[in-house]
Design a protein that fits this description.
Strand order of the largest sheet: 1-2-4-3
Helix content: 55-70%
Largest sheet: 4 strands, antiparallel
Low-confidence stretches: none
Mean pLDDT: 86
Oligomer: single chain
Number of helices: 3
Distance between the termini: 152 Å
Strand content: 15-25%
Radius of gyration: 56 Å
């Protein structure tokens, strides 16, 4: 008869199963290799994410530069419009000032023409900035000059007194008579509305 020791066989199988086939150095190497692979994978993922972030920032910078160029042109247009607006405001102010002065000039000429007696001719009329009006003219008699002065003094647009600055009498041959040259000064002050 043949005898088989079954226990010894079982012991060897049990030893093989509990040992796992790897010794301690092989396990440490495997763990280190896994750590190394995880580290390389982590560094690779980190580098990839940094590359993606860099690409995203480059796209954002390019977009911001494009927007800055667009806004720069808009700013230039706004500055040009502001300059034109300033020029237009100056023009409007000048027109308003001229319009105010225009009514004064109309009233001045109207009052002077209403105050002119017969046989008086004006040769020059000047108004200075302070409202002093100088009138040069000619007439055939001194009475006409005095009537002209009295008419100007009665006008509400001239302050009293109206001064006769000078007069010259000149004899003319045809028709025989006198021609009087005169200069008057008056202060033009239109009544307030």
């Amino acid at each position: 008869m043949i005898r088989i020791n079954l226990l010894a066989v079982e012991r060897e199988r049990t030893r093989k199963r509990t040992g796992g086939g790897f010794d301690a150095s092989a396990r440490i190497t495997l763990v280190c290799l896994l750590i190394l692979l995880a580290t390389v994978a982590g560094i690779g993922f980190w580098a990839w994410s940094l590359n993606e972030a860099s690409s995203d920032l480059d796209r954002q910078i390019a977009g911001a530069q494009t927007e800055a160029r667009r806004l720069h042109s808009v700013i230039q247009q706004v500055q040009q419009f502001e300059k034109q607006r300033g020029e237009l405001q100056q023009r409007v102010a000048l027109i308003e000032e001229l319009r105010k002065g225009q009514t004064n000039a109309v009233h001045l000429l109207d009052e002077v023409s209403r105050s002119l007696p017969d046989m008086v001719w004006l040769t020059d009329l000047k108004e200075s900035d302070d409202g002093v009006v100088t009138i040069d003219g000619r007439c055939t008699s001194l009475t006409a000059v005095s009537d002209f002065v009295a008419n100007l003094e009665r006008s509400p647009y001239f302050k009293k007194p109206v001064e006769l600055v000078g007069s010259q009498t000149q004899t003319i041959p045809e028709p025989p008579g006198e021609l009087i040259r005169f200069t008057l000064k008056a202060t033009f002050a239109p009544p307030q509305s």
